[in-house]
Design brief:
By secondary structure, this protein is mainly α. It has 1 helix and no strands. It has one domain.
């Protein structure tokens, strides 16, 4: 029971981290492509 909760928390934290990192990488890339056609 405890292991499942820990795995669930790790998964949520990891997905949130991946989302933040991908957002931080994608935003400047989109701006760069938009400003430099």
């Amino acid at each position: 029971m405890l292991e499942t909760e820990v795995l669930g928390n790790d998964f949520l934290g990891e997905s949130a981290f991946v989302f933040l990192v991908s957002h931080l990488i994608a935003s400047p890339a989109v701006l760069f492509l938009y400003l430099n056609p």
